[in-house]
Amino acid sequence: MKRLGWLSALVVTAAAAQAGEEAVTYPFDGEFEDATFAVESAIVGRGLVIDYVSHTGEMLARTAADVGSDVELFAEADIFLFCSAQLSREVMEADPMNIAYCPYGIFVAERAGDIMIGYRKYPEGEMQKVEALLADIVQEALE
Fold it and tell me: What's the distance, CA 85 to chain centroid?
């Protein structure tokens, strides 16, 4: 039984380390509201429609006590979800299973007084076109 606990801890630690490598983040010099406005403007400015804004920070704060936690993960955190019809069609025609990556997301989060903007990494191949789009949007938001 001890061995299983140690193995579980190892798997959880490895997964947490890998998750940190699965996102690209950039510091934002400004307020959270300025960062969310910049991201929203950069997305909409490309003619893309934001399907949903997930207020993940609010959800985590609201449910912390319900799950027995008093840890503040983020002061604020939003995720902007959207697709590009043209790019989505292109990557899904190359491999229909690329549907698993849609919609695409860019997050803005404040943690320990620092604001960051980021997105998840995508696999090599056709999905690198989506990652390039996300990188361009984030760079515009950072300017």
Answer: 20
